[in-house]
Amino acid sequence: MKLTVKCFATLSVLTPPTRPYEWQAEGSVNELMAHLGIPAAEVKLIFVNGLSVEGTHILTEGDRVGLFPPVGGG
Amino acid sequence: MEYAERYARNGSTLSETDQACLAASRVLLVGLGGLGGAVLEQLLRLGVGHITGADGDTFTHSNLNRQLLATESTLGQGKALAAAARAAEVNPLVHFQPISHFLSPPDFKALAAQHDVVIDALGGLHLRRALQQAASAAHKPLVSAGIAGFTGWVAVVRPHERGPVELFGNAPESSSPESSSPESSSPESPTVEERLGNLVPVAMLAASLQVCETVKLLTGRPALSGMMVFDLEDLSFYPVQL
Question: Helix or strand or coil: residue B237?
Answer without folding.
Answer: strand
